[in-house]
């Protein structure tokens, strides 16, 4: 029998299942990676996501293979975009907003999005809220070279004037040409949002149901009890408050698993 501690975004609630008596000491474990997905604990949860290293929130840098310069949002966003930096820092780092496995939006360090109004126009970083003009289609080959194109099918290229323009003629190959960029990963996120966004609702629901039913079971609680553990800490996501219908893309079901934990602890 346990003292169960629930952790929700830094706040703690304790439910006393059996009190501690006399000189009894709290001996606790943390059940992380169960009701809040943490990729470093169970990376295999993400194995079947297409383009699984380009999940929502991933930070990337893009380098023109012809100019050998990095794409940069001047002042971190809100201004023009250039292709003129030798060493990538904050202005040259973009956060991916994943729409699908091949459709993305690029957010600058100051919060604006890369945008292009249409064929022949330049790319800037001046939009606060993304829509079609801020949505790009990415093609990728095996060694992290990418092409970026508009919905119209026109490819973005790095011009000799060190700007990005939507006017590459035809379809680029993977050789050194102005429409090909090298993509470097700076940081990645692997949580519930990334899993659900990457798989889509139906597949994510199946993956999470299997995970929640198998990662921690009644046998684990029995094992802990037999080894003197009398307290467990269970991190949960804030969306558990709307578990029957959580905001997209989160997947409900963690409340049922938490209820099971209370039953096992008795």
Summarize, please.
This protein has 266 residues and is α+β, with helices and mostly antiparallel strands. It has helices spanning 192-199, 201-214, 218-226, 254-265; strands at residues 3-8, 11-16, 28-30, 59-64, 70-73, 81-85, 94-98, 103-107, 113-115, 124-127, 136-140, 145-149, 155-158, 164-168, 181-187, 231-236.
Q: How much beta, percentage-wise?
A: 25-35%
Number of domains: 2
Mean pLDDT: 93
Helix content: 10-25%
From the spread of the alpha carbons, the general shape counts as: elongated
The total of beta strands comes to 16
The total count of helices amounts to 4
Sequence stretches where pLDDT stays below 50 over 5 or more residues? 10-17
CATH fold-level assignment of the largest domain: Trefoil (Acidic Fibroblast Growth Factor, subunit A)
User: How far is it from the N-terminal to the C-terminal residue, by CA?
Assistant: 5 Å
CATH class of the largest domain: Mainly Beta
- Oligomer state equals single chain
Question: Would you identify the CATH architecture of the largest domain?
Answer: Trefoil
Name the helix and strand elements from N-terminus to C-terminus, one letter apiece: EEEEEEEEEEEEEEEHHHEH
Q: How does the major sheet shape up?
A: 6 strands, antiparallel, barrel
């Amino acid at each position: 029998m346990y003292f169960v501690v629930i952790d929700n975004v830094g706040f703690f609630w304790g439910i006393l299942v059996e009190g501690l008596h006399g000189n009894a000491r709290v001996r606790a474990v943390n059940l992380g990676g169960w009701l809040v997905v943490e990729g470093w604990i169970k990376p295999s949860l993400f194995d079947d996501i297409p383009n699984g290293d380009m999940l929502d929130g991933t930070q990337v840098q893009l380098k023109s293979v012809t100019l050998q310069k990095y794409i940069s949002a001047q002042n971190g966003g809100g201004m023009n975009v250039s292709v003129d930096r030798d060493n990538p820092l904050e202005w040259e780092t973009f956060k991916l907003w994943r729409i699908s496995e091949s459709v993305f939006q690029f957010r600058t360090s100051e919060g604006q999005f890369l945008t292009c109004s249409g064929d022949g126009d330049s790319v800037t970083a001046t939009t606060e809220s993304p829509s079609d003009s801020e949505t790009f289609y990415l093609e990728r080959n095996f060694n992290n070279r990418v092409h970026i194109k508009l919905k119209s099918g026109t490819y973005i290229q790095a011009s000799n004037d060190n700007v990005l323009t939507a006017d590459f003629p035809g379809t680029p190959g993977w050789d050194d040409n102005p429409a090909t960029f090298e993509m470097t990963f700076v940081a990645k996120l692997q949580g519930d949002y990334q899993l659900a966004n990457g798989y889509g609702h139906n597949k994510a629901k199946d993956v999470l149901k299997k995970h929640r039913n198998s990662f921690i079971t009644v046998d684990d609680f029995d094992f802990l009890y037999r080894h003197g553990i009398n307290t467990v800490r269970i991190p949960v996501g804030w969306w558990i408050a709307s578990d029957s219908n959580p905001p997209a893309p989160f997947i409900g079901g963690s409340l049922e698993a938490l209820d099971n934990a209370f039953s096992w602890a008795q």
